[in-house]
Design a protein that fits this description.
Mean pLDDT: 76
Radius of gyration: 24 Å
Oligomer: single chain
CATH architecture of the largest domain: 3-Layer(aba) Sandwich
Helix content: 10-25%
Number of helices: 12
Number of domains: 3
Strand order of the largest sheet: 13-12-11-14-15-19-16
Structural class: alpha+beta
Number of strands: 19
Largest sheet: 7 strands, mixed
Strand content: 15-25%
Low-confidence stretches: 299-378, 390-403
Distance between the termini: 68 Å
Length: 403
């Protein structure tokens, strides 16, 4: 039996080990790739301690690219010698999420060479948990992307992280000439976000990270965009409790940032950067931060919170990190996208400028976000007031509640 070297993680181990293991053989629907370039997430040991790697021992590495060395007999469209990258997301391909280009929300969603995020049976992860930090890796054929000759293996292996940055920038829904805060800006996805910012209308960047020298080096990737930096290591020791980070952000952007893209996996920075946003700003989080999040203070009649969840760091399909954790255990990786709309003005909230009222929106088929839930509850309350004869404007409420 042919063998190969692989970087492996074991139950209870404090270090990864390089081991000799059998070279994988392809199943009927599999492709075996001879790895030319591979990568490892820097937080993998934290995930190992948290129990997110549910099949041990395992070969690590969710980032991989190389050349096909073997194909299963039912595989079409790929051949030995093809240059390819490995897409690491495992999902069932049959549920409603997978069939509507939201496969990152699949109950079986996991990452090859990385972690699993559900609590139920995960047959694909059981079969394909070994990753790309080895001489060869076996993957289902639908997770293979062909590479043009112009794309090198090192870049191809990092496409997943680049796509995460694109996804985060899209979720931020930035206005023209936006001010954008990027945290963990010296990490892989942070640097990718800085590099791509000019393509999304960003006019000013504020980068948050630990080390000032590294932040200034990353700032050079922004092209001609003006950049401010906040180094956490230079803040007072009690910055995590006294709001220093928020004050520094407000000094750099007195009107507040239009959006925050947060990649920090733990700690209080998320809440403090959110408090540095402008009214109507957007928060996108990819990082699995389980620290309790306190919402910035707003008067109940002036603010409405809408929360959308997207799979962590992973865009629908093949396009774009662990997100929230529950009870200390990681569950579904999701990117959290929260919007804090501006003060309720007629123009800012789509009201009819003559009547001051909002047009009726039929949201019965929409996802039950906090916004749609509030709208439906208002409709129910209107019907109850009309039946009780206490509605101040029964005709108007009846027209809006009839749907």
């Amino acid at each position: 039996m042919a063998t190969m070297l692989a970087l492996r993680a074991h139950q209870g181990a404090e270090a990864l080990v390089l081991e000799e293991v059998p070279v994988p053989e392809p199943g009927p629907l599999d492709v075996v790739v001879k790895v030319a370039s591979a990568g490892l997430a820097p937080g993998i040991m934290r995930l190992l301690r948290m129990g997110a790697l549910k099949q041990l021992p395992t070969t690590l590495g969710h980032e991989a690219a190389g050349v096909i060395s073997a194909v299963g007999y039912d595989v079409t469209g790929h051949a030995v010698g093809d240059r390819v990258r490995v897409h690491p997301l495992l999902n069932c391909r049959e549920c409603d999420y997978c069939r509507t280009d939201r496969d990152m929300m699949c109950a079986q969603q996991a990452m090859l060479g990385h972690a699993a995020f559900g609590d139920g049976p995960m047959p694909l992860y059981e079969q394909y948990h070994d990753g790309g930090l080895a001489e060869y890796v076996r993957v289902p054929h639908w997770l293979i992307d062909s590479l043009p000759d112009s794309v090198g293996f090192d870049v191809a292996a990092k496409v997943q992280d680049l796509a995460n940055a694109v996804r985060a920038l899209k979720c931020a829904d930035l206005p023209e000439r936006a001010t954008l805060v990027v945290t963990a800006a010296t990490g892989t996805m942070g640097t990718a976000t800085v590099k791509l910012a000019e393509h999304f209308g960003v006019a000013r960047l504020i980068l948050v990270g630990r080390d000032s020298d590294r932040l200034h080096r990353v700032a050079g990737l922004a092209g001609g965009i003006p950049v401010g930096v906040v180094a956490l290591d230079e803040l007072p020791e009690n910055w995590s409790t006294d709001g220093t980070l928020t004050r520094r952000l407000r000094e750099l952007a007195p009107e507040g940032a239009h959006a925050v893209i947060d990649f920090i996996p733990e700690g209080p920075a998320l809440g403090q950067t959110m408090a540095g946003m402008a009214t109507g700003g957007t928060l996108v989080h990819m990082g699995g931060n389980s620290t309790p999040l306190a919402l910035p203070p707003h008067r109940p009649d002036d603010a409405l919170l809408a929360l959308r969840r997207h799979a962590r760091l992973h865009p629908p399909g093949r396009d774009g990190r662990p997100s929230s954790a529950r009870d200390g255990r990681p569950h579904r990786r999701r990117a959290h996208h929260a919007s804090f709309p501006a003060h309720r003005s007629a123009q800012g909230h789509g009201r009819d400028t003559a009547t001051g009222r909002r047009p009726h929106v039929d949201d019965r088929d929409q996802p039950l976000t906090l916004r749609t839930r509030a709208r439906r509850l208002r409709g129910v309350a209107s019907e109850q007031r009309e039946e009780a004869g206490t509605c101040p404007n029964q005709k108007a409420y009846a027209a809006r509640s009839r749907h």
